[in-house]
Amino acid sequence: MYTVFSTFDVPQEKAEEVINIYKNRSRSVDVAPGFVNFLLLQNDKRPGELTVQLIFKTKEEYLSWVRSEDFKKIHELEKKYPDQELAAIIPKVSQHKVVAT
């Protein structure tokens, strides 16, 4: 399996707004080949720190998702979000091969 974490900080007062965006996400990734799971994580001590975790069966399937038209559409919409402070946030992305479960 292959997992990707995208961690970003939002102003604490906007954390619930961002959480609601993810609760109402398009879910197009859910039908991508090799998709296993999506999680939105909130740091327990720093509520403005949010992390998206995606799990795919393989790195290759994850990379196919990133290169897909659906991925591009979703990320273009993010850039057009009315709150430009949130739209300008660039996440720290880390990618991991699962080596034990």
Task: Summarize the structure in words.
The protein has a 4-stranded antiparallel β-sheet. It is built from 4 helices and 4 strands; from the N terminus they run E-H-E-E-H-H-H-E. The chain has 101 residues and is α+β, with helices and mostly antiparallel strands. It starts with a strand and ends with a strand. Helices cover 32% and strands 30% of the residues. The model has no long low-confidence stretch (mean pLDDT 94). It has a single domain (2-97), classed as Alpha-Beta Plaits, CATH 3.30.70.100. It is globular. GO terms for molecular function: monooxygenase activity. Residues 2-90 form the ABM domain. This is Heme-degrading monooxygenase HmoA.
Low-confidence stretches: none
Q: Which strand-content bin applies to the residues?
A: 25-35%
Counted up, domains total 1
Through-space gap between termini: 10 Å
- Any idea of the CATH class? Alpha Beta
Radius of gyration: 14 Å
InterPro entries: ABM_dom, Dimeric_a/b-barrel, Heme-degrading_MO
Organism: Halalkalibacter nanhaiisediminis
Protein name: Heme-degrading monooxygenase HmoA
Keywords: Monooxygenase, Oxidoreductase
